[in-house]
Amino acid sequence: MDLHNPLVSIVIPCYNHGAYIQEAIDSITVDKIAYPIEIIIVDDGSSDNATHAKLEALQTAGYHVIFQKNGGPASARNTGVANAKGQYILPLDADNKISPDYINKAMPLLLKEDIDIVYARPIFFGDLSQKKRQYKVRKFDDLDIVTGNCADACALYKREVWEKNGGYDTAIPYYGFEDWEFWIHAASNGFKFHFLDEELFYYRIINNSVITGYSNEDRIKLNKQYIIKKHSDFYLEKIIRLSYIKERYEVDMLRFILTPILYPLYLLKIIDSPIVRSRKKFK
């Protein structure tokens, strides 16, 4: 690995998104990115003839295109990363785009030993009438990650994260939770996250997109049950911490005379809040 000129592998899974993939590729403006780039496109068994034609044209033009049977987003990303040469990975969905500043700002952070994953906020475009699809990205917290995802799949990370996780989990009952499980797994493996609080990639919202089928409540429930069972030790440790925090805050509220004094002291970090105490107690 060349630490002075590290290769970034951009993995683009594609399922019937041939109409958009050129925009994704064009957003990777190599002359504006300060690091060497490789692009790997994985066709995940697309059934759309126009997509096949586009991907074949890209392959003829010299792009690294891999064709496989449909296996879902996790399988396609795994295929791409397995064939990547870089030690730094950036998954990019075929209908999305990136700003070159994403890589330029994330890589100096990843080159530090204490950061393994860097993610940023999206700019939503497309069908903006679908408000529910405009998800929130927030700073990583190991207690928050167990209740819901904090980052999109479009994040830069060290290849060793993927290797230690054993790749993206292809056994999740239904598509749509692969990235959340991947980040939980990374957190349980001790990898460090960094949130770039900037809009550095573009997330396209498409009417009647395949992802809208992921919002079925029964499927969500089964996916969450699967993730909790798989990472039961991680979840148990967080539940114990959350119970401790709840208990400490309840004690503070019972001491209502002192509460107006305690909370400003917590905010000013003059004394440790229950959350800080829990981190020290259960680390």
UniProtKB/TrEMBL annotation:
InterPro entries: Glyco_trans_2-like (IPR001173), Glycosyltransf_2 (IPR050834), Nucleotide-diphossugar_trans (IPR029044). PANTHER family: GLYCOSYLTRANSFERASE (PTHR43685), GLYCOSYLTRANSFERASE 2-LIKE DOMAIN-CONTAINING PROTEIN (PTHR43685:SF2). Signal peptide: none annotated. Coiled coil: none annotated. It comes from Sediminibacterium sp. KACHI17. This is Glycosyltransferase. Gene3D superfamilies: Spore Coat Polysaccharide Biosynthesis Protein SpsA, Chain A. Transmembrane segments: none annotated.
